[in-house]
Amino acid sequence: MFQDFYNVILSSVLIWYLLIFHIWECSHDFLMYFSFENNEILQTAAFICITSTISAVTALPLSIYKTFILEEKHGFNKQTPVFFVKDWLKSYLLTIVIVPSLSCIAVYIVKIGGDYFFVYLWLFAMVTMLFFMTVYADYIAPLFDTYTPLPDGDLRTKIEGLAASIKFPLYKLYLVEGSKRSVHSNAYFYGFFNNKRIVLFDTLVKDYYKSEEKNDNDDKKGCDTEEVLAILAHELGHWKHNHVLKQILIMQFCAFGFLFQYPQLYQAFGFVNEKPVIVGLIVVLQFIFSPYNSVMSFLLIILSRKYEFQADRFAKSLGKAKFLKKALIKLGKDNLSFPVYDWLYSSWHHSHPTLLQRLKHLDKED
Ligand SMILES: [Zn+2]
């Protein structure tokens, strides 16, 4: 509630003081100061740099609170302040290199695209997304965390066996040192066509998670081999049913082409004489579309829960139901997830069914 309140205050200030307009003016002065020629593309780059900096800074207090107070209190946080600052700087630098470049290309496309610019913009968004999904894990994620190949052993052999049994084109198998960041655990796969990689968090795998607290072996967090396999069977269910691709296609709904031309939109945000493309995009996507975005995200959440059940059924069809149930309970416990939710709250907020729903679903007769 506090976070929502904070964000409402921020956007109200943004609208009330016509900040988008003033930042646009600032970026003009900025270009003049460094005696750049004044054109819309360059001004867009400056504008995005300034707005990205503002949002990186305004997001900081809540992020600090979450990491060092909330997560810390429950024993999840493993970040030192130095690690946190480095992380923040890295992602900030990455943002102000990537986002302005992409925005400039988008603006250029709108300018030369004519009446059907949104078709080209959609294509551009699609290509960019696929591009980043390809390079993210190899070039971007390693800037933040250490990825090492999973060592040879029982777990590796069995995972390779599982992948082979369902013809999953496993190309690489990584262990990521998530324990430097937090004790939350996870596993995922990524990659295209015949280049799939699986990533396991070290916090997920009992044998590789080095906790500083010397507990009895029974108390150790993480899952044993069969349970990790059951979780992977679930993840591979997402692959088998093409869930990622389907979700990307559905998310690509864009229809702002016609709204975009209305001068009233620009006037409302303080622009009387000019209609910068980037402002049109921001205003439409962020403000005009916000009811539409809420409805879309609700529908996507319904779809995502459906996919989770489908992936669970896939794991069950591989005979992993028993271990998947054990693993889900263990993960719930390790991550301190609360198991009981009001159905209404849950159906609005949760992309995954609750633990109890999943256990019940796994128990159901086929
Ligand atoms: Zn899933």
UniProtKB/TrEMBL annotation:
Keyword terms of this UniProt record: Endoplasmic reticulum, Hydrolase, Membrane, Metal-binding, Metalloprotease, Protease, Transmembrane, Transmembrane helix, Zinc
Residue span, Peptidase M48 domain: 150-365
Cofactor descriptive note: Binds 1 zinc ion per subunit.
Chief place where the protein resides: endoplasmic reticulum
Subcellular location: Endoplasmic reticulum membrane
Chain segments annotated as transmembrane: 5-24, 44-68, 89-110, 116-137, 248-265, 277-303
Active-site annotation: E235, D312
Reaction(s) the record says it catalyses: Hydrolyzes the peptide bond -P2-(S-farnesyl or geranylgeranyl)C-P1'-P2'-P3'-COOH where P1' and P2' are amino acids with aliphatic side chains and P3' is any C-terminal residue
Entries under Gene3D superfamilies matching the protein: Metalloproteases ('zincins'), catalytic domain
EC code(s) of this entry: 3.4.24.84
GO cellular component: a single term: endoplasmic reticulum membrane
GO-annotated biological processes: CAAX-box protein processing
Family, as annotated: Belongs to the peptidase M48A family.
Name the record gives this protein: CAAX prenyl protease
